[in-house]
Amino acid sequence: MTPRNFLIAAAVTLAAGAACAQTAKPEPDYTLAWNIGAVTDYRYRGISQTRLQPALQGGVDFTHKSGFYAGAWASTIKWIKDAGGSDDVEVDVYGGYKFEAGPVGMDVGVLTYTYPGNDLHPSADTQELYVAGTWGPATLKYSHAVSNLFGFADSSGSGYLELSGNFDLGNGWSVTPHVGHQSVHHNSAFAYTDYSVTVGKDLGHGVTASLMAVGTSTKNYVGPAPSFRNLGRAGLVAGVKYTF
What is the pLDDT of residues 212-223, one digit of tens each? Predict the structure, then answer.
């Protein structure tokens, strides 16, 4: 290529790049995403919330480019009625702020679990503050209850410490190992450790599927008579979610 042709080619390339830059969409100020899904068992911190039976779930997430976010999520449940209440729905409302602290991605926020009309004393409604740090594929998170924890009397100050990983295997596959420990203030007999490994698959068009192997160290969380089944026993949970 002659110097003249080289200069012409370079000019064309620069012009094309400038055109692309001018037509590229700017980052939106915020995003709003909805999701619906179903699982064969709703496990929270390793304990079944649905008496080892399926649940329907859904939520909405608002994310601002500044790092602030908020959302709400709901699921069908069974344990409130099993405990003598009249509710079969859990509604969670949360908000927080994500930012970078050197190589660590930080996340701080508040999460409120509500069970409308749960009729339990103490109430099952729970408020937690949380802080998390992510470095590479690993995330360490601590959640601190500033109210009674899920109906346990005098349990404000309970904490949940968890470590999880998120590994991209390519072609839409991922694996997420997890271990956590729940302390229950003034109710130490109900403290336990949970563990799980989740394999996920992005099926495209907003659809994801998952299979989780999960278990706990406790047998103190049991379902109602006549079965009295261990709600923290080891098992497999399949799920599917659509995000739009």
Answer: 999 999 999 999
Cα–Cα nearest to 242, from 33, 32, 35, 31 = 35
Query: CA-CA distance, 141 to 109, in Å (whole number)?
Result: 11
Residue 211 to residue 195: CA distance in whole angstroms: 14
pLDDT in tens, 64-99: 999 999 999 999 999 999 988 888 999 999 999 999
